[in-house]
Amino acid sequence: MGLPPTPAFNDSIKGRISSELPTPSSANTGSTGDEGASRPEPSLVPLVLSDIVQGVPFEKEIFGARIPGTTSTVVVQVEPDRFHSSRMRQDHTGQVTFDWLDPRVPEDERLIEQFREIKHQIKTDTAELHCTESFRNVVHQLEAEQVRSGKTRPSSAVADDAYRIFTSEQAQRKFVDGSKASMSRRDVFNAERDEFDLAVYRTVLGSDLVFETDGEWNIENPAGVADLKSSLRESNFAFAAADTTAGRKVYFSLSGGARVDGLKLAIHESMGDADEISIDDLTFIDAKRRLAKYTRGTPDATGQSSVQMNLPVLDPECNTNIDRRYDAEQILAAVIAREAREHPVTGSIHVNTLLDACDSCAGALGMLQTRTNQPVSVVYHRDYGVTTANSRNPAVRALQEFSASINELHGHLITGNFAQMYKVGRRLPTPQMLGALTDSLVEANGSYTNTAQLAIYGNSYYLRLLGVLTRTEVVRSDKVSDALLSPEGRAYVSMLGRRVAANPMLARAWASLLHELKEAGVPRDTLLEVLLSKPSGSARCFYVELLRAPHLPRDGRDSLVAWLEEAELVPGIRELPHYVSLRRTLTLATRLLIQVQPAECLEFNDVTLKEVLVQAREVLSLSALDAADNQRLANRLREAMPTITIAEQREFREMIHDTLKEEWQKVIPDTEPPSHIATTLIDDLGPSYGRALIGGRKAAVDAIIARRTAAYAEFQQRNPTASQKALQDVFDAQVREARKEYRTVLSGASDAASENLTTSASRAVQSVKTTLAKQQVRQQVEDAAQAARSEAAASAKSQAEQASSSAAKYAAEREAKSMALDAARVASLQAYTEANKAAKQKAEAHVRIDIAAYARYSVKHETKKAAREFTREYLKKEAAARSEIEIHRLNARLEALRADPRDVEFQGRLNALRGLPTPNELEIRFAMLRAPEPCSSKLSSGHAFEPAR
C-alpha cells in the first residue's frame, strides 16, 4: 500500500474550520469561577485536520476545544495521547497550524488537562448530574469543609467545584487524596497489631475461611486474601466498628449485588434472617440487610444523611465505569450515617476492608467523618493491584507479570517482610523477565495506543526498580549484569538502544541503572560488554541501535551519550576491537564522532524503593492494564463490524455502471460510455454515499463496542485471577454477542441503505444526463466552429486569388527592373573578379620567378659550401694519415737509437753530418705532430701536400 510500517506523526499539522461538521451543544451551562463570577463557556470548533502523518495524505474531521482564559487557543486530540494546539492565526490559504503539545512541558500539560476537562464537560448532562445523589453529597461535603476552614464562598462557587470533581481528573484526584489524607490512620493489616480485626474476621467469616498456617494468617498474605476473595464469590468484605450511645457496634457487609445473593457467612448461622446479633458486649449488624430494610420502609430515608457517592472514572486509559454505591465500604458508611441520627457516634470509627478503598469509597468514608464528626481509620489487607498475568497479548502479559511483582514487593515492604522481598526481588533480573519485557518494547514503536504507552512506563519503572534494589542490596549487582549479558538480556539492551532516544523517561531510567551498577562495583569492562554485546539475529549492540535509530532534535540521544561519556562508559577506538569487529570499530567510532552533537548531560533523581513502587503501582494499575488488554477486543470488533460492507460497495458500483450505460444508450445508441465517466461518478458520489451509511451506523457500532468492552472489563475486574482460557471464552462470547447486535443494526438499517442507494442512483442519473448534455453542447460548439473555419477558409482563398491577380502585374514590373539591376550587378562583379584573377596570376608568376632564382642561388651556395666542407674534411683525414706514418717511422728510429747509447751518439753525429734532426728535435717534432694545426695543408717538414687526383 506504500504506507510506512510505523506512523510518524508530524509535530505541526494543518487545519481549517469546517462548515459541514455540525457543532454539538455543550451540556455545561452556567459554570462559575472561584469567586462566583460566570466563567466563559468552553466552545467546540469544527475542524478538518491534514498533514497529520508523514507520507500519508488524508484528512480527519474533528472537534477542537477553545480553552477558556486564553487568547483564542484551540486544542485538538488526534490520537488517544497526542494533542495539538493553535492560536488560530490563519495564513493566506485560510489554514492554521497546530503544534504538538509535549506532556512533559508544564504549560502543555495544563492545556491537555483543560482539554480533557472540557471533553468530560461536553459529555456531561449538567441538569441530570445536579439531580444525582452523588453530586449533592459532594456539595454537602465541600460546604462542610468550607465551614471548618472559616471561608465563606457563594453556593454557586461550591457547586462549580463539585461539578469539576465530576469532570476534571485533576480536581477529582485532589478531592480523593484529601479524603484519604484526612483518615486518622491508613495501614496494611498486621495480625499482631490488629488482634481485634482478626477476631472480627473469625467471628463473621468463621475459622474455615480465616485460619493460621505455619505461624502466618491467611488474611495477611496476598495469596490467602485472593483465595478468601474467591470463596466470597470475588466480592470484597469490610466491617466498621464504632462506639455509639447504644453501645459498641460492628457493622459488616459484602460488596456486589445479585452475585452474592444467597451467600451465607458463618455468623448468619446464629443470626438467622435477622440483621443483627449481640455477642458479648458487641452488636454485630449486617449492614446490607439493614440498608435494604431502610430502603423498603422509606425509600428516601437516607436522603439527608446519605454519604454514598459514585465518582466517574476520568482516567483516559480506562474506559469502564462501575457503580460504586454497592461497594462494602459505601454500604457501611450509609448505614452508620443513618443510625448516627438516633444513636450518635461517640468515638472513632475503625474500618477494615479486605481490599483497599477505591476513590469513590475513600470519598464516602471522608464524608462519614464529616457527618459523624468522628475520625475514621482504615486497615486493608490487599489493594486493587495486578496479581495474575493472564492476558493473551504478550506485551500486556509481560507488564502484568512485572506489576504482580511490584504489588508483592509493596506489600512486603509495608509489612516489613524483608525475607519475602528478597525472594520476590530475585525474580526480576532473570532472562525470562527480560525476554518478556522485550516483547513489550517491541509494541512501543511510536504509536499512541495504551499498550505502547504502558510499555514505556513499565520498562522505565523496571529499570528504576532494578537500580534501587541493587542500591539497597535486595538484588546482587552481579545477578543483574549476568542477566543483561544473557541472550535474552542482550536482545533487551539492543531494543533499549532503539527506544531510549525517543523516550527520555526510559533513557533516564537506563542511565540510573547503569549508575547504580557502577556504584555497586560492577567493573567498567563488564558494563562496556553489556553496551557492546551483539544479540542473535539481525539486531545490533546498544550503541549501534542508538545511533541508527530515528533522531529528532528534542529527543534524549545526545544528552544520554553525554552522560555515558561523563560516566566513562563510551569506549575509545582502541577499546572497541576487544568487543566488536574491526569494521564495526571504524563505523562506530566514526558515528560517535560525527552523529553525536554536544549536549547537556542527562539528569535523573535518586528515588527511594517506596517511591518507585508507589508510582509504578499507580501507572501499572489493574484498570490501566485491563484497558490496554481491552483494546484487543475493540480492534477485533471493529474488524468484525465494518460500517460499510463489501456487498454494499459492490452494489453501489454496479448501480453506477448500470445507470451510466442506460442513460448513455438513450442519447448515443450503439456505443459504450467511456470508463473515465464511471470512475468520476464513483469518486464524486462515493463519499456522500459512505457518509450517509456511516452516519447512521457508526454511533450504533460504537455503542456495541463500548458495551462489549465494558462487559469484558467488568469480568476482568471481578475476576482478576481468571485463567487465560476463561478470559478467551469471555472474549469470544463478547464477539458473538457483538455480531448478533451488528446483524440487527444491518437489518434495521437496510431501508436506510436502500434509500441512500436510491438517492445516489438519482444523483448518478442527473450526473449522467448533465455529462451527456455537456457532451452534446460541446459537439455542437465543435461543429459550429468547424463550419466557421471552413467558411473563413473559402473567403480567404478568394481574397487571396484576387490579391494575387492584381499584384501579379506589379510584381512582373518590379521583377523586370530587379532583373536588369541584377544583370548589371553581375556584370560588374564578373569584371571585377576577372581583373582580380589576372592580377593574381601576374603576381604569382613574379613570385615563381623570384622563388626559382632564389632556389638556384641557394643550390649554388649550398653546393659550394658542401664542397669546401668535404675538401676540409678530406685534407684533415689525409694529414692525419701521413702524420701517423711519420710518427711510426720516427718512433722506430727513436727506439733504435735508445737501444744502444753508442749508436745513439754515433747516429747523432751521423745525422748532424747528414743534416738530419737530433733525438731532441725528433721529440719536439713528435710532440708537434701529436697536435697538428687544424685545416693545415702542410706537413712539419715544410713540403706541400696535394690531394690525390
From TrEMBL:
Native source organism of the sequence: Pandoraea commovens
Region described as Disordered? 1-43
Biased-composition ranges, Polar residues, are 20-32
Taxonomy, superkingdom: Bacteria
Which named protein is this?
Answer: Uncharacterized protein
